[in-house]
Structures are given as structure tokens and as C-alpha cells.
Amino acid sequence: MQMKTDSSCCNCSKPKDPGRRSALKICTGALLGLAAASAHRTHAGEISDARPEIGDFLVRTDAEGGTQPLTISDLAVGDKPILAFPLEPASGAIKSGSRLNKVIVFRVQPEEIDEDMRRNSVEGIVAYSAVCTHQGCDITNYVPKDNALICFCHFSQFKPTHGGEVIGGPAPRRLPVLPLKAENGRLVVAGKFSSKPGATAG
């Protein structure tokens, strides 16, 4: 006597649910996407806080919030200084996560710059930390007639043609220099800050 088998009781004979498989693929893709986005944000955050490195561009923020790489032609002797941040070309990340990366950039007569500072400048264009070494206030002003960068919090004064040396006020040390070079007309970081920016000891 032959025994009948009921194929309906066998799980392997049931058709697979294509909808469930698609849902699993979508969920897996979404999780991988979130993980990648999180890793990208973490990496971007690390770059944003990092100090300027050789090869970084200098960029300023325009009125619409866009970024513009600084070029030699953007600055003329006597123009108001420009505040800028470094940008890593490989990632396009602006290093604005720390205010200690803010630099003040302007142009003076090249013949006024001393020999040491001349090596760190481009056609009379110099860049310094925009954070005072006294108590960390922002420095935004250059007074050509006095050849002085001035912090209006406590009136510390620095001589930009001579490596940011202190020429007045309570600042305990000179302003850190950010060395520059030019590549295809763009201003590019040529070295690290000459000393630690901010109100801490260099």
C-alpha cells in the first residue's frame, strides 16, 4: 500500500516571499548608507577641527554663505584685511570647527617686510592667526599708518612686517604666522603656524 505525502506540510515547497526579500534588501542598504554617512560626518568633523596643513587653500565666506578661495589678485596694499579659514583640497572640508584656525590676511609693501617674514609671504601678502595671544579676542584690524595689527579688547599691538612681534599692550608673545605660497594664483598654506594660536603659551 502506497502512502500519500502532503506536500503542503513541507516548508521548502512554499514559495519565497519576494516582498519580504525586497524589504530586507532595502533595510540593509539603508543601514549601510547610514553607517557610511556617519563615518563621513565623523571624518569631516575631524578635518574641520584640524590645524592648517601644507597644501590647504585659504577661503573666505561670501554674503550668501558660499566659499571663495583667496587669490593674489583679491588683495591690494591698503585694502581691509580678509578673515579666512583653511580648506583641505582633497575632501573640500573647511577647517572652521575651531576658531583658532581663523586667520587674518592682508597685503603690505613687499619692501617693508623683514627677511624672515618675506619667506613666509607672497608678494607682500601675509597671514597671521586672528586670535590675540593675550586673552584670545579676535583681531580684525590692521592700521597701515602705525603698521600694526590691533586687538581692541585690551589694545595689544603686533607688527606684521616683522613676524607679528609685540609692539604694544599686554600680549605676552608675538602673533603666530601662517606661512603662505602661491599655486596658480591661489594662496596656499606653506607650513604650520609658527607657534600655537590663542592665549596659551607658544
Structure description:
With 202 residues, the protein is α+β, with helices and mostly antiparallel strands. It has two domains: 15-48; 51-189, 3-layer Sandwich (Rieske Iron-sulfur Protein), CATH 2.102.10. Helices cover 18% and strands 25% of the residues. It contains two helices and twelve strands. The protein has helices at residues 18-49, 115-118; strands at residues 57-61, 67-69, 82-88, 93-94, 103-107, 125-129, 141-143, 148-151, 156-159, 165-168, 180-183, 186-189. Strands 1, 2, 3, 4, 5 and 6 form a six-stranded antiparallel beta sheet that branches. The protein has a four-stranded antiparallel beta sheet with strand order 7-8-9-10, with no helix packed on it. Strands 11-12 form a two-stranded antiparallel ribbon. The longest helix has 32 residues, at 18-49. The radius of gyration is 28 Å and the shape is globular. The model is unreliable at 1-15 and 33-43 (pLDDT under 50).
